[in-house]
Amino acid sequence: MRVLMIGDVVSDVGSEQLRRVLPGFRRQQGVDFCVVNGENSARGNGITPASYEHLLASGADAVTGGNHTLRRPEFERVLEEPYSAALRPVNLHRSAPGRGILVVEKRGLRLGVVSLMGQVYMDYAENPFDAADAAVKQLAAEGVRAILVDFHAEATSEKKAMGYYLDGRVSAVVGTHTHVPTADAGLLPGGTAYITDVGMTGAVHSVLGVSVETATAKMRTGLPVRFESAAGPAAMDCVLIEINDKTGRAETIERFTVE
Q: How far apart are CA 85 and CA 35, in angstroms?
């Protein structure tokens, strides 16, 4: 099975780039299943029902979340829909709407997707290692052999630790949130595909998708600044993972930036 995992889609610029390049890239690479981090796909921040539908129409099969997933109250109804492909981090407080685990069947293989959030320098979340253990145990009980984890976290050390902690138990641990792709895509010793951060889908000439002018003003002065999304040329950062249908282990992982 060929799985594509795409970095944080940022605002309407990122959403439009996804629509422009994802359908053709899926066909070209023979992608069977596509996971998109959509927690910031709405203009401004967060995710809305409209931006979520845009991601699905562009080719996403599952939409993972992060610390901004619940920023827009209107998105809660999407998370609560019985057959929703939208996930929020599984380790949010139990009162949070929606779910953090999705199970689908593709080519006779039961595939699980887990949206997970870190604790270091992040908003409150329950222990991600304990949450990951519980998610893997639940999916194994349901006969799921291939598990994809989107770990939305700030600290590279926390992401690295999670990769090794889950090595051999899941198919992939893909980091999101920091919007800058890292150079460590590879297979861990137990057969888990890993990258610390896959990057983002958004404006190339920006500060993590935000306009250079507003981001610089905030950092230079420390005064309140209303961030604006950057415009201009965009790119889609992603990783393509080949998973063995029989074992659920990853065989290859390759990173792409699609302009």
A: 10
Number of domains in the chain: 1
Binned at pLDDT 50, 70 and 90, residue 120 comes out as very high
What secondary structure does DSSP assign to 206-247, as a single string? SBTTB-HHHHHHHHHH-S-----B--S-EEEEEEEEEE-TTT
Residue 141: is it exposed, middle or buried by C-beta count within 10 angstroms (0-12/13-18/19+)? exposed
Domain limits at 151? 2-258
Q: Please name the helix (run of DSSP H) or strand (run of DSSP E) that holds residue 165, with its range, or none.
A: helix 156-166
Is-catalytic flag, 177? no
Q: Find tokens 């302009």 and name the residue.
A: 259
Residues 6 or more apart whose Cβ sits within 8 Å of residue 195? 174, 175, 181, 182, 184, 185, 186, 239, 253, 255
Active-site option among 54, 68, 152, 179: 68
Rounded to 5 degrees, φ, ψ at 11 are 60, -165
Burial class of 99 by CB neighbour count within 10 A (0 to 12, 13 to 18, 19+): middle
Residue 23 phi, psi (nearest 5): -55, -45
CATH number of the domain bearing residue 119: 3.60.21.10
Neighbour count for residue 73 (Cβ, 10 Å): 10
Cα 144 from Cα 95, distance rounded (Å): 26
User: pLDDT tens across 167-225, in order?
Assistant: 999 999 999 999 999 999 999 999 999 999 999 999 999 999 999 999 999 999 999 99
Coil/strand/helix, residue 27: helix
Residues 120, 158: Cα–Cα separation, whole Å: 7
